[in-house]
Specification:
By secondary structure, this protein is mostly helical. The protein folds into 2 domains: 57 residues, Orthogonal Bundle (Arc Repressor Mutant, subunit A), CATH 1.10.10; 155 residues, Tetracycline Repressor, domain 2, CATH 1.10.357. Helix content is 75%, strand content 0%. InterPro entries: BetI_C (IPR039538), Homeodomain-like_sf (IPR009057), HTH-type_TetR-like_transc_reg (IPR050109), HTH_TetR (IPR001647). GO terms for molecular function: DNA-binding transcription factor activity; transcription cis-regulatory region binding.
């Protein structure tokens, strides 16, 4: 006798519905933009009714912020996976290259769209700021796994990654209308060389200090 398919629990059905709504929101924002990612558009893409949507999210704002949080989670998870796939821990240059690729990922457009919308929407701005702070904290934690990062103080590493993050965000937007692969590669090399120079300087200072104490 063929086995009857196991029935999903209510919690499993709930999680599946939420997952479809979030996926549909990410896809809609990335493909048609924040303004056109209406609840109707999201419901059509997800196959969930408006009533079903409002059983899980109080408003469009809640759904949009949850989508931003999900994109941030995917960003961090993928970077960790890519680091783990390397035969050796990444160099600073390799880490920056992987970071730049994640900023160019299609789903990361969600962040660009929401940040622009937040400029004139105080509620979205407040909620997105909270998500953004958590996202950046996760980026810093991942940065600490890269050899050489231990030579940076917390403030120095945060400033470096904040600067690189803003650079890659701006580059990802600008290259849509005015791509310049040669300049982009030179920019990445400049960032990497600066970070490696800083590490070399710190190592030299430490070695000189040991010599003086000896």
């Amino acid at each position: 006798m063929p086995r009857r398919p196991e029935r999903r629990t209510q919690q499993e059905r709930r999680e599946a519905t939420i997952g479809r709504l979030i996926d549909a929101t990410v896809e809609a924002i990335a493909e048609v933009g924040y303004a056109r990612a209406s609840l109707g558009e999201i419901c059509t893409r997800s196959g969930v009714s408006r009533g079903g949507l409002f059983r899980h999210f109080d408003s469009r704002l809640d759904l949009m912020v949850t989508a931003a949080d999900e994109v941030a989670r995917r960003h961090i998870d993928r970077i960790r996976e890519q680091f783990a796939e390397l035969p050796e821990p990444p160099t600073l240059a390799e880490a920056f290259r992987l970071m730049r690729a994640r900023h160019r990922a299609t789903e990361n457009v969600v962040w660009f769209e929401l940040m622009v919308a937040a400029r004139t929407d105080p509620d979205l701005r407040a909620r997105l700021s909270e998500v953004g702070r958590r996202f950046f904290d996760d980026i810093v934690r991942v940065g600490r796994t890269v050899p050489g990062s231990e030579l940076f103080t917390d403030a120095e590493l945060e400033m470096l990654l904040n600067t690189v993050e803003h650079t890659f965000d701006g580059e990802a937007i600008r290259r849509e209308i005015d791509p310049d692969p040669e300049a982009e590669e030179q920019r990445l090399q400049l960032i990497s060389e600066f970070a490696e120079f800083y590490v070399t300087r710190r190592l030299t200072e430490a070695a000189d200090g040991d010599t003086e104490r000896g």
